Amino acid sequence: MGWAIALHGGAGDIPLSLPPDRRQPREDALRRCLRIGVEALKSQMPPLDVVELVVRELENCPHYNAGRGSVLTSKGTVEMEAAIMDGNTKKCGAVSGLTTVVNAISLARLVMEKTPHIYLAFDGAEEFAKEQGVETVDSSHFITPENIERLKQAKEANRVQIDYTQPIQNDAKKEPPMPNGDTQLGTVGCVAVDSHGNLASATSTGGLVNKMAGRIGDTPLIGAGTYANEFCAVSATGKGEAIIRGTVARDVAAMMEFKGVSLEEATKCIVEERTPKGTVGLVAVSAKGEIAMPYNTTGMFRACASEDGYSEIAIWSSDLKEVSDVH
Length: 327
Ligand code: ASP
Hints:
Layout lengths: L3 E9 L7 H23 L4 H13 L20 E7 L5 E7 L5 H11 L4 E3 H11 L12 H12 L31 E6 L5 E7 L20 E3 L3 E7 L1 H6 L2 H12 L3 H11 L6 E7 L4 E2 L6 E8 L4 E4 L6 E2 L5
Parallel strand pairs: 3-4
Antiparallel strand pairs: 1-5, 1-11, 2-3, 2-6, 5-6, 7-8, 8-9, 9-10, 11-12, 12-13
């Protein structure tokens, strides 16, 4: 048994032709955030603090669909959401509909620790953020030119999407990807376990491009996109509606709890057999320090490391990279 950490920057239809200028900054961000998480675990930081720290870093990175890089609703607004959960205590917190909060994940943590509730959304969540003095900015800060372009393309094709080749609804004609080849921008998540088996999970997102205002995805829903108990911690990504229907994160934990199967078996079953192809990816760690990062999409931005010296950063299945310098 030892510590382990895994993070993701979204799963979806990520073309192998993704140009280096789009791929590199995301891989660099994964590597940097993995290092931060590894250092924190090595210095005995509790897993709950580690996942919050790593997700904050990913939220601050404009290359991912969370915090600064959040995609836009059909009204051109931003509505960010996040959830965090501690495995041992099953304490959790979640937020939705944020328009000014710089780090949604930290507000979710405050909901967990400072309120009798689990989930705050929209005006109430924003008021709570102001009360708690968390960093807020004008919502224009989150509305980047790239995301205005993404919304424009999604509207032209009349679809709601996590990418530009996989319509979620409104069977639309296939549109060519963005001229810069940037076809994927992903939700972020992190799971961690320390050498005592304490587990935690955190996920944060801007949701789907061109989503309806008010739409809530899987990310903040405990048991769908985010879950942790004494067996494992799970953070999912992909098409939120499919992940909610499949109660993906909780089902992984339930299989371990009630069927006694390994993390690998549980995650493989949920991703390969229980959720429609092309809809989901997840990162998970078990109390024993095992790691699983399966997906049934084309790819998933992901990274992991464990105490035994193993680490990897990858997008597709063919590009597995061993990196030893994160330890
Ligand atoms: N699951 C997120 C959502 O549906 C999107 C993603 O994972 O990229 O809101």
